[in-house]
Amino acid sequence: MADRRLVCLAALALAFTGCGGGEARPPQQGTHASGAGGSGGSGGSGGTGGTPPPAQGRVLTGADDGFAGRLTVGQTARLRLPLPEGGPEPTAEGDAVLLIRISNVTGTGHREWELRAVHPGTTRIRIPRPSTPTPATLTLTVT
Fold it and tell me: Using CA atoms, how far apart are residues 45 and 51, in angstroms rounded to an integer?
C-alpha cells in the first residue's frame, strides 16, 4: 500500500513540475556567457546572425544577468532565486512571457517561477538583487 502511495505522489510531482514531457533538457549550468552583444555565447548557435539561444527547459538565476534567449509559443523555462518568502518579486516588462509563481512545497529556501511563452514578442524580466540597487535582467523573445 505504501509503494502505491509513493508511485502516486511521484506521478503527481511530475505532473505539477512539468517533468516527463518527453523532451530532453540541456544540462543545467550556473551561468551563461551571453551578456555582451546578445548573440548567445553558451548556446549552440554561436553567432548565427544574432539569433538568441533556446531557453526551453533552462533554469535561470540572478547570475544569468544579461541573458537573452528565445522560446516558441507554449515552451517554458524556469527562474529560481534564493529570495525569502514575502521578499521582492521579479517583474515582467512585456506580455509575450507569463511569470508564474510556483509554490515551494519542499522548503528549500528558494523561490521559483515558470516562464511560459504565450504569444510572439519580447519580455524583459527584472530580478531584484539584495546586494545591489540594479536588478539583473533577462530578455526572452517568443516566436
Answer: 7
